Amino acid sequence: MSRVARSSVLSEKAARQSTDARFLADGGELGAMMRALDWSDSPLGPPNHRSQALKTTVGMLLAAQAQIVLFWGPDFVALYNDAYAPGIGANHPRALGRPAIENWGELWDDLEPLLAGVRRTRTTFAAKDRPFYVERHGYGETSYWDVSYSAIPDDDGSVGGVLCIVSETTERVLGETQLRASEARYRELNGTLEQRVAERTAERHLLATIVETTDGQIQALDLDYRWLAINASCADAYQRIYGKRPRVGDSLHEFLADRPEHLAAAIAIWSRALGGEAFTTIEEFGDPRFDRRVYEMRFEALRAPDGTRIGAFLTGTDVTDRLEEQARLAQAEEALRQAQKMEAMGQLTGGVAHDFNNLLTPIVGLLDRFQRRGIGSEREHRLIAGAAQAAERAKTLVQRLLAFARRQPLQAVPVDIGRLVAEMGDLISSTTGPQIQVTVDAPEGLPEAMADPNQVEMAILNLSVNARDAMPDGGKLRISAKARTVERAHTSGLTPGTYVCIAVADTGIGMDEDTLAHAVEPFFSTKGVGQGTGLGLSMVHGLASQLGGALTIRSAVGAGTTVELWLPVSQVTAGAIDSVPQPKLQPLPAGTALLVDDEPLVRMSTAEMLSELGYRVVEATSAEDALQRVREGLRPNLLVTDHLMPGMSGTDLGRALRSQYPELQILVVSGYANNEGIAPDLSRLTKPFRSDELAASLANLTKVAQ
């Protein structure tokens, strides 16, 4: 052969190889890598030896933005695109053109049956959050993927390979596990697929097959807004939200001609994609007469082999349920944060109230003594009376703190709420003043609620005062009570059942969302300095919770406020609450009183009161100190002990001494207002207290002993 002829043959061969490699032209970095790769060691051989189906599939996956890997032939030789490469870590680029077992060896026992099954049965395998063990970064880890494995036919109709469209979900799955299986993030797109509209019938058929076997919602429009392709999943979505299905060749303008607003919204989005823009968006579509759904959509330009833009396509995912679950999760997280904050504040206020009661006890006792003895001039009497009044106000403040902390003593009995509310009408009218029009609606025949009547009265009065302050220029205040039934989960957390709902509604200035969010927090107040404690609503909130009810607030700026106190219905008949006889004080016997308290000022004040009541007082600073005095021969007639002290508690001390001396009278004094930890057979007295309150408690001890 002449040199000229040989040159001509080589030129024709080079031209043929260049032509055969055109399917790699727009393949990004992987396309360039495939063009430069020495394929002599690959089972696939050089590009010019490959089937048309393989070339078409590789050209499609290289141009796509989704993570796609093709396992071709019986050796499952790997070919993948730029989007897929980062997902295999250090296995790239050595995995390119090599049998899968060489670079997916650690998961081959898991992966090979899946690929072989799709190849054998031609059935698509799809899974969500599928776990795979991988060693892509030099160490073992479990990763999670959304996968869709589809069989790809070769030119002769046999299965040539398996096309895997994947999306890694590891981060989302681990996040959901940490949030105890709550779904917190959007699902990654199942995969984007660029549909190439080819001139040859074989290519169009191959792409149509891929589109139909993918479980994502895929559709393509030409530049005239006519459908070039749409898969069954996407057509089903149109059927759901519009009651009809588009077909290839239909016009989007004609399809939504009877819904101009929907057509305008669709055209606005598609026009961007048809103009060449690639983007992801989340939009809501659908006729309310059928259904409204939210979709996350990825738009890409669709180009002919020569690069000419011929349309656009999208891959969509219905994320409606995900968004709703995310909203519910956010609401639950906010409720949890609020509950944790309120619990922490409750513990804090309970501790503060305990210490405050210890401080108030000697103050109240000393002022009480001054008043009983009439010490000082008339002016000093007024000053002492004022100080005593201030101490009582401080005592009330502590009670409100304890109410918020749910630690105040409640004497829950069946209460006729209708009568209680009706009888408070005159008191509330006098409290709110003439500028406020008060209406009371309390029908007869309401079921009795299980509550503490004194605390409920205080709650209604607090709510009424708040309403009055919210109407500085006058307005209307309506107080009502009615029976309400909760059949399903209530917004406030009430369990299903029957309740009596007390509503206090005003026409005042209302609250904005931020104020409403903090309304029940202790010490939160919108009033000026010195005009409120910020404990009114928090006290009512604590009372409702302690009684097994709830407090709800509805308010808007300029539209007034409605506060509802929900109380559980009593299962027993209401008794004559006001007719409980008060015990008459009995003369106190003389004897020795063993007084135990770790607070010196409290001990000093209480000792003075006991001395005035005729007792010889022996003081001890702790339970251990008291037991030592008894071991040394002390035989007290009366034990007055603090409950919570370092070391042994007052309750344990009382039990220990009573086991030795059954006739010993015991009175437990506590700075807390609840009965927690105090034996039910031991009498108790809450700090702070006056001499007459101490005497009454001791008289009751004597009466019980008799």
UniProtKB/TrEMBL annotation:
CDD domains, alphabetized: HisKA
Domain Histidine kinase: 351-571
EC number: 2.7.13.3
Record field: transmembrane: none
All copies of domain Response regulatory, residue ranges: 592-702
Modification 4-aspartylphosphate, positions: D642
Keyword Phosphoprotein annotated: yes
Keywords noted in UniProt: Kinase, Phosphoprotein, Transferase
GO-annotated molecular function: phosphorelay sensor kinase activity
Enzyme class: transferase
Substrates-to-products reaction catalysed: ATP + protein L-histidine = ADP + protein N-phospho-L-histidine
Kinase keyword on record: yes
InterPro entries associated with the record: CheY-like_superfamily, HATPase_C_sf, HATPase_dom, His_kinase_dom, HisK_dim/P_dom, HisK_dim/P_sf, PAS-like_dom_sf, PAS_4
Protein name per UniProt: histidine kinase
Species in which this protein is naturally found: Bradyrhizobium huanghuaihaiense
